[in-house]
UniProtKB/TrEMBL annotation:
<dbReference type="InterPro" id="IPR053830">
    <property type="entry name" value="DUF6922"/>
</dbReference>
<dbReference type="InterPro" id="IPR010982">
    <property type="entry name" value="Lambda_DNA-bd_dom_sf"/>
</dbReference>
<protein>
    <submittedName>
        <fullName>Plasmid maintenance system antidote protein</fullName>
    </submittedName>
</protein>
<feature type="domain" description="HTH cro/C1-type">
    <location>
        <begin position="16"/>
        <end position="70"/>
    </location>
</feature>
<dbReference type="Pfam" id="PF01381">
    <property type="entry name" value="HTH_3"/>
</dbReference>
<dbReference type="InterPro" id="IPR001387">
    <property type="entry name" value="Cro/C1-type_HTH"/>
</dbReference>
<dbReference type="Pfam" id="PF21956">
    <property type="entry name" value="DUF6922"/>
</dbReference>
Amino acid sequence: MDNFLKYKGIHPGIVIKRELKKRSIKQRPFAISIKEHPQTLNAITNGKRNLNTALALKVEDKLGLEEGTLAILQTYYEIDKEKEKLESKKPTLSLLRKSLFWDTDIDQIDWQKQSKAVIRRVFERGSETEKNEIRRFYGRQKVNAILGSVPREPYTVSTK
């Protein structure tokens, strides 16, 4: 089990794939030997499908792994995915001044629907720390796309 905790947060299918490869076992015959559809095992080893407890027990038994190892890895993987969802819903508000959003309640902002307005405002009036947080939250590509779509003032020629 301790060896597998280094894989904490990684989809258990990747671990199964490694174990099969390390032991020179082909996926299809292995799936059939545990009375599972080869397509199901393939989807799991490619990280496209979660590993249920019943199948985890079959795989562990057949490979001689400690009982519960793969189920625990699946749980850690799901926890990591949930954390990513929670963290990605809004930027780190402690890095953004509330005065930037003086005309609205910062806790009521829909950060996805109002992304254009948020990005433009922060890049017009924000500090470098605030700009960096917005880049981290939305990603450089999205920020650049939105800032690139901002209409620019036409160039004027000085008549001096």
